Amino acid sequence: MELIAIQSESVNIEDCVRDIVSKSQNILSSKHGIIHSSKIRLTFGAFMNLTVTLLLDSSGNNRKGILADYSPGKHKEDAIQKTLEKLNSALPRGAQIVDFEIRTYTTPVTRRTYAVGVVVYNAPLEVKSFTEYTIKERRELLSKVLENFNYNPRVLNISEIARMFGVSRDSIYYDIEQILRDRKGTSR
Question: How many CB atoms lie within 10 A of CB 173?
């Protein structure tokens, strides 16, 4: 587990929202894992302050991110609805929302109302064809499958697996042999 804090402060709502999204993309794109939980702190005043603290779990791996956007509106409900529409359209397919926050702010002089929304999410990694897997990726997947079946290769249909990966049966047999050999080497 790893804690990560991403913070932005600005007199301009648009700058603050863009900055937090940019920082989150830079930080999270290089991190392995999933977002286990988060805490969003959003305050308004002379400055808009946005802090997102994430607890990253390295036991899995997902596409992860922070969406933030804003909208002006005639009144609070209007601004919130516009912001939600923007956020919903930007969410990746299959995303699971970990946390979200929606706040409104009305400027003292112009009485203009803004809604700011922040969403923290995990989404499935881009799915690629089995034939695009590297040898390492193929062995990692085979190892997980074998682990689920107590490392018994007889439960696998080797011909079907070879066809799915676009390789020979000999390649799959060799992969399994290496996986079992590596497992014996680490279990001693």
Answer: 14
State pLDDT tens for residues 123-179: 887 767 888 888 888 998 899 899 888 989 888 999 999 999 999 999 999 999 999
Measured distance CA(123)–CA(110) in Å, rounded: 39
Q: How far apart are CA 165 and CA 180, in angstroms?
A: 19
- Contacts of residue 138, defined as CB under 8 A and 6 or more positions apart, other chains included, come to 130, 165, 167, 175
Neighbour count for residue 2 (Cβ, 10 Å): 12
pTM over 0.70? The answer is: no
Of the candidates 67, 63, 62, the residue with the CA atom closest to the CA atom of residue 52: 67
